[in-house]
Structure formats: C-alpha cells, structure tokens
Amino acid sequence: MQEDTFPAAEKILSDIDNVLRKDLNLVSFEIIPALDNENKSPVFHAENSLGLASWSVKPLYCYAYNRLLDLRRNKHRREDPSVVSRWLMGALLLNPDISTFWNMRRELIKSGRLDPTDELRFVAIVLYYKAKCFEAFAYRRWLLQYMLVEQKQPPTDVETLLRNEIHVASMSADRYANNCHAWSHREHVVGNFEALVPAAYMSLLKEEWTSSEKWCTKHISDYSGLAYRQFLLKSLLLSENSVTASDNIVGRREILYEFVKPSIRESTEVSILRDGSSNEALDLLHGFDTGNRSDIDYDRCLINLSYLTEECMFNDDLTRSYPDHEALWYQRRFLAHTIVVLTASYEKYSSYKIELFDPRLKIRQDKIVNETGNRSSVSRLEVAFQDRSKEIIKIAKSCGHHQSTMAEKFQKFLTTINVQL
Amino acid sequence: MVKLYALTILYKGPISATPLKAVYELGSFSFFQRGSVQEFMAFVSKTITERTQIAARQSVKEGEYMCHVYVRGDSLAGVLISDHEYPNRVSHTLITKLLDEFASKYPPDSWPTLNEATCSFPQVNTYLAKYQNPREADAFTKMQNDLDETKIILHNTIEAVLERGEKLDDLVSKSEGLSMQSKAFYKTARKTNSCCSLTA
C-alpha cells in the first residue's frame, strides 16, 4: 500500500506538529514548489511562517488519509489520540475540505484530548492556506460555541476571543477574493459580540465601519465586502442605544448636511438642517410632518441616518474613480432601496424598524399609497439621492462601454422601486 | 485589488536593459514566495523593457497583473507592475513623473554606467507608497494630465510582447537572474495553469 512506501511520514508530521505547538505566533502555511527531495527535510520554518516542500505533499497526504480511513473502518482498534490528532492535522492542513476529519477533531475536543485555544490557532493556519474553506469556518464557529456555551469553564476574556475571530476573517478575506465565507463568519462574530460584550458593541460597529471602508476602497470589485457593509449599515441604522458623546452628533449632522447640500435651495432649510432640532431636521429630510413624539429618540435617529448618507457619498466617490465595476452599482441599488424603506418606516413609526427592510414588494405598494397620502413636502433625502444619481449616470454614460450599460440598468432598477429621476 | 507591487527604473542600452533602481511591495504574498516573486518581477521588468521600442508606452495584462512600461526617447525606462484593477492612466502618470525626477538628479550621460548598487534615489519608495492610493495621488496629477492614452499599446499576455519565435518558458529557463527555486515556482505555476498567480 501507498503509505508503507513513505517511511518518513511520521517524522515529517511530528516536525510540523512541533512547529504548530511551539510557534505561538505562527502566521502562515504554504506549499513550496520543489522538484525533488534532495534528501532534505521538507519542513521549513522561518519568521513565523511554515512551509512544506511540494514533493512531500502527495505521499504525506496519502499516508495520513489511509491511516485515518483504516482507523474508522476498524472501530475496535485503539489508537493513541495524540497520534490520531497528528494524522488529522496532516490531512486537514493539506486538504481541509473533508468534514469527516473535522468531525473526528470535534470528538477529540469533546473528550478533552485537544485544547480549543490551540485548535483555533491551528484552524487559522489552515485558513491562511485555504482561505475559502467552508468546513474550516464551520468548525471555528463550532469551537466558539463550544468554548462559550458548553465548556465547563468559559473563557474569561470573551472580547479578545471574538476580536481574534475578526482578525482571522479579515486575513482570509485578504487572501482570497470574493471570500463570502470569511465575511459571513465576520457577521456571525459581530452578532456574538452584540450578545456577549454589549458594552463594547457600538464601538466595535464603528471600528468595523471604518476598517471595512478602507478595505472596500482597495477591493473595488469585491461585492462580498460591500455586502458586509450593508450588514453593518443595517445594524447602525437600527441601533437604539441612547446617544453618548462618542456618537459625535455634530460631526454626524455635518455628514448628513454635506449629502443634501447640493440639492438645497432655501436658506430656511439650511438652518433647519444645521441648527434645528433633530426632529425638525428628520421631518425635512423625509418630507413628513410627524409631530414631536416623546417616545422617540430623534437624535439617535438622525445619527443613524448619517451612516446611510456617508455610504452614498462613498459609493459616489468610488463609482466616479473606478468605472466598469458592477459591484459598486449593486451597492447603489441597495442604497436606493434603503432610502425608500427608511422613508416608509419614518412615516409609520417616526423611527427606523427592521420589519420593513426585506419585503420589497410591500414597500412598493405602500409607496404608491403614499403618493396620494399625507406627504407634506418632498423628501430632501430622496431628492439629494436622485440628484446625485443623475449626475453619476450622466458621467457613466459619457464613459461609454460597460459603465454606460450598467448606468442604464441602474436607471431601470430605480423605476421598479418607484424612484423617478 | 487596487495595488502596486513593483516599480523599476531601467536604462535601455543597445543590447540589454540595466535596472538602475527597483522597489517592491510584496507583503501580500506568502513568506516563502516573496523572494521568487521579486526575482520574477525583476525578470519581467527587464524583459519587457528590452522588447519595447524607444519612445513608446505599453501596458500588458497577464492574469490578474498589469505591467506598464514607458521607454523615453533618451532610453530611460520605467516599469510598474500593479494589480489589474489599478487605473492604467495613473500608472503611466506615475512612471512619467518618476522618470522626470530621476533625470533631473542624474544626467543622461551617467545612465550607461549606473547600476543598482551605485544609484541612490530613495524617492522611488515614496512614489510606490503614495500611489498605493491612486485617488489621493491622482488629485494633483489630474491638472497636468497631458498623457495621451490612445498612444499606449495594450497587450493581453506577456507572450504578445515577445519577439517572433520567442517563448516565455525558454526565456525563463535561460535567465541568469532567476534562482533554481524561482524556476521551480514558475514550472509549478505553469502546470496549474496560473502563470503569474503565485498566491494560491
């Protein structure tokens, strides 16, 4: 059989195991192309990086794989757990798409043979090499669940644990384009953060907002990153925390004002937006006179809305700088839809509620009712978005090619959600 | 990804091109590949300069990479290797500005005898770092935008730039600038049909 022809396998596996165990700051694993073995060890370790010469990959994987399958076929056989975990490590490092092997590691965790913290480090290394591996992310989430809920002694520093997850997700997104698994892992972690570290949740959201903006500026055709920003934006829009100094209401108001400024003609409106109460400003932005309700935190609402306008301006900016990127136009569709939703929500509740976000059709019907309903004036927010879109579409059409086709498609989309340019 | 990887200033002599200054940003490549990636980028920069006519601009797409080259009328050349999402116009503007600045420091008669060891031109680092964000760098180059984009010759592969009968494989195996390790990298990458994609 294959494995018997590779006597060095156990030695190589234990070399790799040693590196994983001893180098707590190990960052990466990769395969180094090498044509023959030159009678040297295939394991390389330098500057927190682990490498394996390519000639050893096939025999090593076959060895570990066959041993593991052998073991599973003979249930009665007893094997030292540390040996089994080493085979698993070898097999999964080279091919992490096998759920059976991850399940075998889950069993080892449950029986206390493997330490969950060490395990998180191992999976991070696997993800460096295969950054889009769903099984590895699924296993990470299982580990988190195990550590936070099922383990007898839950970890003391949950925040550090979760921030490390964000770091791993970020590394994976950098390593592989359109890595939706990495971003959904990140969403999942943010959700955990909200439940388990509520005190630091808002500041995390804002940090994520800033760092994902940086990321998206670099990855202009990667929709997975933009989709994560949509998730963040929804979380920010629906936030109900009471306003604190860290919210920087003055700065956020300035962002809102900057967004609508080009479409404002009257000086009374300018003064409402800059110096009026949050309630007045929101009424003007949405075009409804909803009165002043004591149960609504208008300041919060206004701050939340500013994130939407910030994203619109960010999208304007990227679409102008980088023509021919479809992802940016899809983001714009999301923003157009969100503005319609928020206006409907504000009319109904004088604040922003999640229930209106998804059922797209219903919004359209609501909107039609609105046309004849109690709208007091035009929505400054919608007008500003329309003006900006007109400008973007005009520029896009002058670019020609793909960019103008996408602009036309976007225009068509606007009519389906009842937005007229 | 909007990213720059390598920026090289070369002198295109009658027979071959000599690099005068080169700078790299290879942090996104995995550790054991960086050496080979750098050798390759140097190899490609030199090869492409040698196959570009005097007073010509070319942009070559190879997989997810772009290689921009400008050889001036006076044989001074600049090569920029970027990701394909980086705006071409900014790339060429960057090369032009860089070569102008270089020429103002070193007179043309010194170029044939210069080499990477003797040449001191730290500005090249600043250019590579600053232009990583093209929108910021672009703002002030827009004003003096005299670059005629229609004059840039575009190619879809490196092979298209080579002379008739030349093959990239042969050039690689003959090259003295590439180590055994890098040649092994090249062969493996070729086999998996991802010529320049050394990342995965």
Compose a concise summary of this entry.
The complex is a heterodimer of chains A (about 425) and B (about 200). By secondary structure, chain A is mainly alpha-helical. In chain A, about 65% of the residues lie in helices and about 5% in strands.
Average pLDDT of chain A: 90
Distance between the termini of chain A: 71 Å
Strand order of the largest sheet of chain B: 2-1-5-4-3-6
- Element order of chain A: H for helix, E for strand: HEEEHHHHHHHHHHHHHHHHH
Strand order of the largest sheet of chain A: 1-3-2
Number of H- or I-type helical stretches of chain B? 6
SSE class of chain B: alpha+beta
Main location (chain B): membrane
GO biological process, one term (chain B): endoplasmic reticulum to Golgi vesicle-mediated transport
Membrane topology (chain B): Lipid-anchor
Organism (chain B): Cephus cinctus
Describe this structure in words.
- The complex is a heterodimer of chains A (421) and B (200).
- Chain A is built from 18 helices and three strands.
- Chain A is mostly helical and 421 residues long.
- Chain A has two domains: 2-217, no CATH class; 238-416, no CATH class.
- A three-stranded mixed β-sheet of chain A has the order 1-3-2.
- In chain A, strand 2 (43-46) and strand 3 (49-53) form a beta hairpin.
- The longest helix of chain A has 24 residues, at 298-321.
- Chain B has 200 residues and is an alpha+beta fold.
- Helices cover 35% and strands 22% of the residues of chain B.
- Chain B has six helices and six strands, in the order E-E-H-E-E-E-H-H-H-E-H-H.
- Chain B has helices at 34-50, 88-105, 123-130, 134-141, 168-174, 180-191; strands at 4-12, 17-24, 56-62, 65-71, 76-83, 152-155.
- In chain B, strands 2-1-5-4-3-6 form a six-stranded mixed β-sheet, sandwiched between helices.
- In chain B, a hairpin with a 4-residue loop joins strand 4 (65-71) and strand 5.
- Chain B is globular, with a radius of gyration of 16 Å.
- The interface between A and B is medium-sized, with 27 and 22 residues.
- Chain A: Keywords: Prenyltransferase, Repeat, Transferase.
- Chain A: One of its GO terms (molecular function) is protein prenyltransferase activity.
